Here is the input.
Amino acid sequence: MTAATFQSTADYIASDDLRGSVDVAVTLERPLLVRGEPGTGKTRLAEAVAANLGMDLIVWGVKSTTRAQDGLYVYDTVQRLYDSQFGEGDPADIARYIRLGRLGEAFAAPERVVLLIDEIDKADLEFPNDLLWELDRMSFHIPETGETVSARRRPVVIITSNAEKELPDAFLRRCVFHYIAFPDRQQMAEIVRVHHPDLDDALVGAALEAFYTLRRFDGLAKRPSTSELIDWVQALALDGIDPDRIMREMPFLGVVLKTPQDLDVTRRHLALRARRPID
Amino acid sequence: MFEGFFHTLRAHGVPVAMDEWLTLQDALGRGLADSSLSRFHSLARSLLVKSERHFDDYDIAFAEYFGGVEQADDAIADHVWQWLDEHPEALRLTDEQRGQIDHAISRIDLDEMRRRLEERLANQTEAHRGGSRHIGTGGTSPFGHSGWHPGGIRVGGESGHRTAAQVAGERRFRDYRSDATLGVREMGVALRRLRRLTTRIEGPATELSLDDTIDATADHGGQLRLVFRRPRRNEVRVLLLLDVGGSMDEHAELAGRLFSAVNQSGRFRELTVRYFHNCVYDRLYETATMLPGRSEPTTDLLARLSPGHRLVVVGDACMAPSELAMVGGAIDYGQRNDEPGWVWLERLAARFPAAAWLNPVPAGDWHRVHGARTLNAVRTIFPMFELSVDGLEEAVEHLMARS
Here is the structure.
């Protein structure tokens, strides 16, 4: 068994299931693939794990143009050509022009680190496949210098993804999978408490009530998530809104809903509710 | 350990691979389950199940194998249970009857079954339950729902015993769905061939051109001259028209996500997505909810887009003949079209010579599906391909050949 076990931190609440999945991934030294609705704290999980296990965190944010190679190393040809022209440095030493990417850094780190590969589904379809070998062996070869970079301590790899279908089976088979379900009201209350410890209970209760009602409205293109709720609670608190008004009027909806269509839909629902007798 | 669980999971459709199973054994060997069943439940799930869509199947399999939890059978609707309470004898099968089932499934002739169903429907004039011949609930007639018959056709209702070899009625595409999901990745790969690379598209020159650098450096007496060029980009523009409403929704969503996923990774120069219901008329919609406020006249779109656009239509092309052939035949009451759908389809085809129609109806059913008449009429205007991995590959090949 590992000595260090992942626990909830002061500002991150993890469910038992999630804690278990992190432990499994850490012990088996396999990547942990985390999926869930946007705003359920997938990215923040890595920060919490790193803080909890006392490791450094290396973040590799994936974009649509990111290639697997970028994570390993970059060979700066242009700098080398310039140096050869102007006689600066030593162009014969290729190693000077090899810069490690985020994955490379994680391997080369002297201590065990946490590597977050964020939003892996954003990259090209082949991206996860291109990383299979490196993630399995935790090492890669640099042909330019004949050097092999291997991990001294296998990093804890946490991968987040929003879409499921684009990930290849071979990749999925190697991962420990965890799905972060949307928090229920009690968990959510704890999460809000972590962010706003000093708020009045009545306000938080009313905001939660309104928030979960809102999430149930039909026709929303994007259901509001945790981060929006936290912003909303802050806005409500700053303005000193009376808790009784929150459910009826849902002020500052713009904080919670991000598109004009969703605002329209919600206003219509609210108007309908207002006409009904209060139960 | 627990080999039976592995097979139970697979029997419930959870795609567990052998190496995942071995990983679980490894994890158990390291004591990660803490000899607690609930720890084991989440441990095994995190290693064996890689999609939340299978969580439910996993739980059912878990309950079945470890027997701690009642197995809920949500497939049998409450009213069927109620009816059963009143008629306890109706659905009880003899062993002999059960024995017939496997045997019978192997020799079902669906066409024959369908023909007989139509005959029965014609003969039957009143509601019916039990018995062995007419359509109704319970009973052992091959038609109806909630009954046992070796390979019967279900008519509406809930599936009771799951032996219906084919569900006649509204759920035509259900079985196809899992194939489609499995094929999504392959489809994405097929779509990537929808490209024509060029360096002519404007953009920053960021790629070092080695050959040109060597030439330029030589021209300057060995003084380094770096030459950059624009990276090659796809110049293919795509107009995607999606049929939404009713049975088409899930296919439209799938196709829409596929194309935009490919587009996001910078694969198309331009992707325009518009929605319609059953047939294209004088307006096209920007959202699947078809809000009139977010629509534009089809003619505007035709004028704006170049003929070089590749047109891809996703739809089943199954509609009432009037929707295709009549003025005012549109299925949506609000859309009083002044010209028949047929004219609009021909207009589209004339504007975009490179066009393909993707149809989620399996190609083998095109001549006999409900709506086959309009489907085949549409085929005379647009080359039609099945919405499957193979069909998509053919369509892409066709689209790239036409330019």
Q: What stands out?
A: Chain B has three domains: 3-66, 78-168, 176-196+235-401. The two ends of chain B are 60 Å apart (CA to CA).
